[in-house]
Amino acid sequence: MTEIELSTEEKILKAAEEVFMRDGYDGSRMQDIADVAGINKALLHYYFRSKDKLFEKVFDAKIQSFFPKMGEKFSQDIPFVDKIHIFIEGYMDLLLKNPYLPLFVLNTVNNKDKSAFIKKLPIELSRQVAQSYYVEFKKGNVRELNPAQFIMSLMGMCIFPFLAKPILLDMFKADNDTFDKLMEERIQELKHYVTLILTP
Amino acid sequence: MTEIELSTEEKILKAAEEVFMRDGYDGSRMQDIADVAGINKALLHYYFRSKDKLFEKVFDAKIQSFFPKMGEKFSQDIPFVDKIHIFIEGYMDLLLKNPYLPLFVLNTVNNKDKSAFIKKLPIELSRQVAQSYYVEFKKGNVRELNPAQFIMSLMGMCIFPFLAKPILLDMFKADNDTFDKLMEERIQELKHYVTLILTP
DNA sequence: AACATATTTAACCATTTGGTTAAACTTATA
DNA sequence: TATAAGTTTAACCAAATGGTTAAATATGTT
């Protein structure tokens, strides 16, 4: 295990990500972030002027690391159902590596002071999916449905377990590993569901 | 329109519900709740000793008003698919009347200081659904699947649009009424989806 | 070495916030 | 009407919190 020395700026961003993800914007304390980063509070304000600025940096970084990967998938010239299967695999994989991200993003867009952050989300992606659906529908390869409703369902099915994770852990008396295994299983189950929904 | 004079306690609970739902626990201010209730802060502490106590009262009241109605539905002796259809109708209806509730509950159970609140949720309901599924599966009336995965999907499909509402409003350039109509439509669409998933 | 620049810290400040106190006002009841 | 109990308020308090300042310490450059 080679210890790589992070720069102070990187240490701060890493700590801020951890704390903001765990405690939310309002629940996070600058002192807390400083402690986790192993520095003091004034240094935090030296690097990132304010809590708001720091939060925006963290949010941007997470979004950038998360969504772009998804976009490419839909450019490929393969059947719509296969695209959705690939989406499910890729998305669930990202969620397994970033289990707190959904609540983080949803809280941000629902926060009265942070609703402008909606503009940072890749909403074109959903249009891409809808367009891709219609192409395939005209070919008679998929059942008739409202693509907007389908996308909401798809997202909901993928994301929900991560939002409700504490409830599920309690319900199944499970630990993190068991949860991850359940999510791995889930990938197959969801692929099955969407096939049933989409196949004419 | 007959104006009904609410008691101070009722006014406080109503205001607290509004503020906690909108701003979350950490984002809510006792002064804010007092203002909305049209009283002053000391009176708030006279009726409900602390922010924590008040929050718990609001949480309990919302949970009580929300979940019990769902339980009865599964006692009826009708086909499993019909039970799920009735669940979708009832649940979406409750969500339309309480659009902020999902984020409120999910934030609460994910909050490090509030995870004990998980115990207040009706997790037996999901066991009831699972049991109901197996009875029907033995009769060969439903496809083979993992009921836990199915329930997560069902909940996710119902809840997700309400969590992502600000994003959807922006995406569709829609207002609240349009959103509600989209959700009414969604009831039929979801009933269709679960039929496809469950029918052998 | 000398100088400038970047980094780090302890001490401090103003505001916000949950919560308290003591006094005043209502209401009902003996 | 006197008294007790419940209700309401203004003023206050201590702790927490985001943010600032000025001085100290490294680091690199000439």
TrEMBL record, chains A, B:
This is TetR/AcrR family transcriptional regulator. The keyword DNA-binding applies. Pfam families: TetR_N. Gene3D superfamilies: Tetracycline Repressor, domain 2. Residues 29-48 bind DNA. Keywords: DNA-binding. Residues 6-66 form the HTH tetR-type domain. The keyword DNA-binding applies. The lineage of its organism: Bacteria, Pseudomonadati, Bacteroidota, Cytophagia, Cytophagales. SUPFAM superfamilies: Homeodomain-like. It comes from Runella salmonicolor. It comes from the Bacteria.
